[in-house]
Specification:
Length: 413
């Protein structure tokens, strides 16, 4: 036997003896339990962990908790080197991209399912898109035992989707997609919730987009824990592998205000590229263009110009320098009012608690949600799921890393 032949046979033995984990495993998460009534209403966080066990995987391959109190979980389609997970609905006939389920007081509150979105699904045939839309609409009507109400897109009133809504004693639901005037197939989304579900589920049923909370009410969300002053009750999302840190942060902000618009829809409106993200320089223009659609007002507090932070005049011209003192004052002022700040920065320049792992360096957007005067820290949150709800950094370091500081708040007082 030649040396080459022996080497080949050795490699073959090694390859065939590799554990299955080294090869790609294909799993399917059947999501029908979330859209079948009244069974869905009986679901608890414990049920989720029993139904979708992690098996021998170090982390659950099907879903992850977005909050440490297990009030929100996310299922995401995956196609990694060693793992593929498909999400399916209606006995496997309708694929899905993502599912977010909310619990309140340990019981199912509602579910939001991305049946298609461009960021995760890429391109889709129009026929396939229409089949998913029709199948899910028929299913929701059967589950709620109600006839739908058609919703037309009204961009001037902030209603940027079209579709159908259902409401009955059994619950409420919404099936929506980007309005037909927008020729690209962007997203197809459904929500299903208990009849008494509030927050984003109630906001989604309204005929006009806009904050369901008043500006004057936001200060009630400010919490104190020792020397920490921070905003509580901020919803969590996970932007995934997409460069959606800006629109993911805005989605969280909007949910906090009671505005039903997710990152996929915001990416379409703002023109975000799922591979490139939204540049810091474009934030002022893009968010300033859409704020009125949701009864909010967007302002750029400051941007970086070389070594300085400066005001931005007329949205494009460099204005007066902003002293570091005013940077810290602006943070404290808005946090005390219960208003989180959108924070564009260069990550990886300075230490933070806990240490950074997900993204070592580069431009990023976070939310500043609090401060600690005694320790001279700012408190912030990343849109990366559980464990990223509240983190901290030296306040002076935060100022040095800042590319821009922005605020978007409700106009209803």
């Amino acid at each position: 036997m030649s040396t080459a032949t022996r080497a080949f046979l050795s490699l073959l033995v090694i390859a065939t003896s590799l554990p299955l984990r080294a090869q790609q495993q294909s799993l399917v998460a059947d999501l029908d339990v979330f859209v079948t009534l009244p069974d869905a209403y009986e679901l608890t966080p414990d049920d989720l962990e029993k139904r979708y066990e992690k098996g021998n995987w170090s982390r659950n391959p099907y879903f992850e908790w977005l909050t440490e109190d297990r009030s929100r979980a996310i299922f995401q389609k995956k196609n990694h080197r060693n793992l593929k997970v498909d999400l399916t609905l209606l006995k496997g006939t309708v694929p899905a991209e993502e599912l977010i389920v909310d619990f309140k007081d340990g019981k199912f509150l509602g579910v939001t399912i991305s049946i298609f979105n461009r960021g995760d699904g890429g391109a889709i045939a129009v026929d396939d898109y229409e089949k998913r839309f029709t199948a899910m609409g028929r299913h929701l009507g059967e589950q709620l035992q109600a006839r739908p109400t058609q919703r037309a897109g009204k961009p001037s009133q902030g209603l940027l989707t079209e579709g159908y809504s259902w409401i009955s004693a059994r619950g409420k639901a919404l099936l929506e997609r980007n309005a037909p005037a927008q020729d690209k197939v962007e997203f197809l989304r459904m929500r299903l919730a208990r009849r008494d579900a509030g927050g984003v589920y109630e906001a989604a049923m309204q005929a006009r987009a806009g904050a369901s909370v008043k500006l004057s009410e936001l200060s009630l969300n400010v919490r104190k824990n020792g020397d920490d002053v921070f905003i509580g009750g901020l919803p969590m999302v996970d932007q995934g592998a997409k460069g959606y840190c800006v629109v993911a942060s805005v989605q969280r902000l909007f949910e906090y205000y009671g505005i039903a618009c997710d990152m996929h829809q915001l990416a379409q409106i703002a023109g975000s590229d799922p591979d490139r993200g939204t540049s810091s320089l474009a934030i002022n223009t893009e968010l300033g263009r859409i704020d009125h659609l949701f009864k909010t007002r967007f302002s750029c507090l400051m941007v970086r110009q070389g070594e300085r932070l400066v005001e931005l005049l007329d949205g494009q011209y460099v204005g007066p320098e902003v002293p570091e003192r005013k940077y810290h004052e602006a943070i404290r002022k808005h946090i005390d009012q219960g208003i989180p700040l959108l924070w564009s920065l260069e990550v990886g320049l300075h230490p933070e608690e806990p240490p950074l792992q997900e993204q070592a360096s580069g431009g990023h957007m976070r939310m500043i949600i609090g401060y600690n005067l005694a320790k001279k820290q700012i408190l912030f949150s990343d849109s990366w799921g559980a464990g990223h709800e509240l983190k901290r950094m030296d306040a002076d370091d935060a100022c040095q890393a800042t590319h821009g500081l922005f605020v978007m708040k409700p106009t209803t007082r």
